[in-house]
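We were asked to recover a plausible sequence for a given structure. The inputs and outputs are reproduced exactly as logged, with field labels preserved.

PROBLEM: sequence recovery
POSITIONS: 327
GIVEN STRUCTURE:
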């Protein structure tokens, strides 16, 4: 696998976190909170500047005036306060697919909740064997999940990921995201993000899932065939978005939902999904195993999947892995 890993420990993550949380951080505050002072503090400030962080200084202290749109493992995982997801973060510059990297790390014993991010994917993949356009400027992330009771969890994990991404995207002005079954995140009818769940097939990876999340954050150009269907978040927000901040939000939301899945509390996820969904109430055509079904979406069940009242009058469940919705 081609990959270059971005190192952790290259700067002082607690200092960056303190600067992010304060308007101006005085030298006394910095010394009190994280024990850095004098020459050591100057050196750490210089290191952060070298990595592209704009730090202003005055007699009273330091202020973070700007941050580069780059993923740093330390910044991503520092102070996340999540129970499971993001305790370990791997950042790659260029990789075939973050899912490939996550599977390889899983096979080598990586722990539940590992996050893998890349600046660029050369063979990103989407659902149903499609390729996923993954240039620089996007958020390409895979998460290793090993729930205690893996049976039947793929649909719930897809829903949880869709909810987490939609909630995180919606925190940005102009990004009024909704979910289209099973895994598309849309703003104003255009796809900005997609999620997919891959399931371990070998005996040693049985019960292991890799959740792949792709968000078109600041991507400026798309191939002609997806141009009319997609639009980057930055276009809707009217400004570039710092991907590390978005990644941390998604990880936080997803962690809460993953804990609910582990506890078997699926109902709350279903409710959140419904509240964000643009699918319920719509007429759909569903292709499944070569057959076509038509009807209206009436509900969503985190285990059973999409509940559709067919034109025959029967209500039938369709799981995302087997379904393509054609409006
Ligand atoms: C879809 O809508 O079809 C799902 C797209 C998922 C894309 C992400 S990007 C990060 C991860 N690595 C991949 O190769 N795919 C997923």
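RECOVERED SEQUENCE:
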């Amino acid at each position: 696998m081609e990959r270059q890993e971005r190192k952790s420990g290259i700067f002082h993550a607690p200092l960056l976190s303190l600067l992010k949380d304060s308007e101006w951080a005085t030298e006394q505050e910095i010394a009190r909170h994280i024990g850095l002072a004098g020459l050591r503090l100057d050196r750490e400030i210089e290191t952060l500047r070298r990595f592209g962080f704009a730090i202003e200084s005055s007699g009273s202290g330091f202020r973070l005036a700007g941050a580069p749109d780059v993923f740093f493992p330390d910044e991503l995982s520092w102070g996340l306060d999540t129970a499971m997801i993001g305790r370990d973060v791997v950042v790659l510059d260029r990789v075939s697919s973050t899912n490939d990297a996550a599977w390889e790390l899983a096979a080598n014993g990586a722990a539940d909740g590992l996050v893998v991010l890349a600046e660029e994917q050369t063979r990103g993949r989407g659902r149903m064997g499609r390729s996923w356009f993954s240039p620089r400027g996007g958020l390409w992330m895979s998460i290793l999940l090993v729930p205690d009771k893996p049976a039947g969890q793929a649909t719930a994990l897809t829903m949880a990921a869709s909810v987490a991404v939609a909630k995180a995207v919606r925190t940005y002005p102009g990004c009024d995201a909704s979910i289209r079954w099973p895994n598309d995140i849309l703003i104003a009818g255009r796809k900005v993000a997609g999620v997919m769940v891959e399931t371990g097939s070998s005996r040693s990876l049985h019960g292991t899932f890799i959740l792949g999340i792709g968000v078109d954050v600041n991507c400026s150009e798309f191939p002609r065939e997806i141009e009319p269907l997609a639009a980057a978040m930055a276009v809707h927000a009217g400004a570039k978005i710092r991907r590390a901040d978005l990644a941390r939000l998604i990880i936080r939301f997803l962690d809460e939902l993953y804990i609910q899945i582990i506890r078997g509390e699926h109902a709350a996820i279903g409710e959140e999904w419904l509240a964000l969904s643009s699918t319920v109430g719509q007429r759909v055509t569903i292709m499944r195993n070569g057959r076509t079904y038509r009807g209206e979406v009436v509900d969503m069940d985190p285990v059973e999947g999409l509940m559709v009242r067919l034109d025959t009058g029967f209500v039938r469940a369709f799981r995302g892995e087997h379904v393509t919705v054609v409006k």
